[in-house]
Structure formats: C-alpha cells, structure tokens
Specification:
Length: 210
C-alpha cells in the first residue's frame, strides 16, 4: 500500500484537493478532522488539555479552539506541550485508519496532514504531495474567511515550514491557483503514476480506485 502524504500551508486549497482524491475512491485520512474529534465533547484530548490549559473547555464540554489558539499562539513552550498531548492521540487514529484501508484491499491512501514536515510525518510517507498557490492568493483566501486577524495569520505562517521548502521536498505539486479543472487533471496524473508504481512492484491495485 502506498501512503501519499498531502500537505500545504494554510489557505492553499488542501482540503479541496483531498476531496478530489476521495471522490475517486481513495481513502483519505483527515488529520484536522481527527483533531476535531478528539477536541469534541467526550473526546480523548479534552481532559488532558483542560488540565494543562485551564479554561479552554467550552460550554458544550469540548475544547474551544479559539481559546486554545490564544493560549498557545506565539508561545513556543505552550505549543510544544499542546503537540505532546495531541499528536500521540491523533497518531492512534491514523493507525486505525491505515489498518482499515489495508483490510479493505486499498492500494493507495492519502494522509491529509497540514503540519506534515513540522511533525516528522514525511518520514512515514511513501510519497509527498504539496498543494501550493502564490502568496497573494493564499493571503486573500485566508483573510476572506473572516476567521482570524492578519496578525494571527502571520503568526501561523511563522511556525509553518515555508511553502518554498515544502515544494522542494515534494514528489508532486498541485498549484491550486490554476483552477479546479487543472487541479483535478493533476490528481488524475498523480493517481496514474502511483498505480503504475504499484503495478511495477507486483501489488494488486484494485479496479480503478485507491
């Protein structure tokens, strides 16, 4: 089974690209969705995060992500502690995903991980796809959402591996500023290449899906 790691900085169009793979039958592990699950009421991360950062639990009993972000942003030691708590929990969910995909006979899976390089996840992938766009496009997309200030956007960028470095370490790149049709065509090309790799190694690639 080929594990294709999908990553990209904030506002690059990573989620939309992941959806293109899912639409083609490829199992997609969404690291952000996994974090949402463990932050939700009753989630595994709620109690340890509240113990470490008192007051970040919302009225619904889950983690208030805005409060948590305010506590750790621009605080490297707090961010490190957050990662030490959350990453092992999320890692367990990823392992379960991989086991299920393998049992289902899938030859290709996508691991959608925003902080791939920052967390060393690239070392556990067979190939890396970086979703990218020009800086001005990225900034316009993020600020148009109205979910964070420009200062918060800059703080997030500061702790992420620069886009240029990600691109230099990628096996595949999709420039989402070229539009959906171009991105979908590139997804098809990447899947064709990965299926060829599977065929060359004698693996069973299934019938047209991941």
């Amino acid at each position: 089974m080929i594990k294709l790691a999908l990553t990209g900085s904030i506002g690059m169009g990573k989620s939309a690209t992941a959806a293109m793979f899912a639409a083609r039958g490829v199992p997609v592990y969404d690291a952000d969705a996994a974090v949402h699950r463990v932050y939700a009421p009753g989630g595994e991360a709620v109690a340890p995060l509240e113990a470490e950062f008192p007051g970040v639990t919302g009225t619904d009993g889950g983690i208030d992500r805005i409060k948590l972000r305010q506590r750790v942003l621009n605080n490297s030691s707090a961010m490190k502690r957050l990662e030490e708590i959350v990453h092992p929990i999320v890692g367990g969910q990823q392992l379960g995903f991989l086991q299920k995909a393998m049992a289902g006979g899938h030859g290709i899976v996508v691991l959608d991980i925003p902080l791939l390089f920052e967390t060393g996840g690239d070392k556990r992938a067979d190939a890396i796809l970086v979703v990218s766009a020009p800086p001005e496009v990225q900034r316009a997309r993020v600020l148009a959402r109205g979910q964070m200030t420009e200062a918060e956007f800059e703080a997030i960028l500061a702790r992420q591996v620069p886009d240029s470095v990600k691109r230099s370490r990628a096996d595949f790149i999709i420039d989402t500023s070229q539009g959906f049709a171009a991105a979908e065509a590139r997804v098809e090309e990447i899947l064709a290449e990965l299926r060829k790799r599977l065929a060359d190694t004698g693996s069973d690639v299934g019938s047209g899906t991941g």
